[in-house]
Design a protein that fits this description.
about 200 residues
Length: about 200
């Protein structure tokens, strides 16, 4: 949008960069997910954390930042939220007088960061090379969740000796498959770039 000055020259309107709000939202959501990790409900004799309902939203927020503000702002958002996750877990362990569990921190951090970069890579490819069809966006969300759980489990595996692990895994993933449907619809409706 342009404005005309007194001398008749056109001047570009300054745009306000409000990407920091979405970076803060992403960081807050990551901390909330970590906080909800210990609160569970029972489904099919499997204890499932409430944080699974929020996990797909981190990809929606990152995709929104990518679509509106570009690749670099997404890298900044992932970096800030990843460091905030580690700091939050460390501060909480210290303040509660507990032991800092490195495998838990590294599992969650690596799962988050790797899945976010995979999500970002696929999403940039979809934006640049396709018209971002709904089905591909939906698959991108699901693939990002699979990557998150794969890295989280690989690093945190030593503590996953549970009888009903696979039942819990597929129950959680089934719930998130359903959650990703409306998120993909929302993502498809987001217009690209600042307008």
């Amino acid at each position: 949008m342009t404005r005309v000055t007194k001398g008749g020259r056109k001047r570009q309107k300054d745009t306000y960069d409000d990407s920091w709000m979405y970076i803060l939202l992403l960081t807050t959501l990551i901390i909330l997910i970590e906080s909800l990790k210990n609160y569970t409900f029972i489904s099919n004799n499997v204890s499932i954390t409430y944080s699974i309902f929020l996990l797909p939203f981190i990809y929606l927020i990152t995709n929104y930042i990518t679509k509106k503000y570009g690749y670099r702002k997404s890298i900044v958002a992932i970096s800030i939220s990843g460091v905030s996750l580690v700091l939050f877990v460390s501060i909480m362990a210290f303040s509660m007088g507990g032991r800092l569990d490195f495998s838990n921190i590294s599992g969650q951090f690596c799962g988050y960061v790797v899945s976010q970069f995979v999500n970002l890579t696929i999403y940039i490819f979809l934006l640049e090379n396709t018209n971002s069809p709904f089905f591909l966006i939906y698959l991108e969300y699901l693939f990002s969740l699979i990557i998150f759980y794969m890295f989280y489990i690989l690093i945190y595996l030593e503590m996953l000796i549970v009888d009903n692990f696979w039942l819990g895994y597929f129950t959680v993933f089934g719930i998130q498959i359903i959650l990703c449907l409306p998120l993909s619809i929302i993502d498809k409706k987001i217009k690209r770039g600042l307008e």
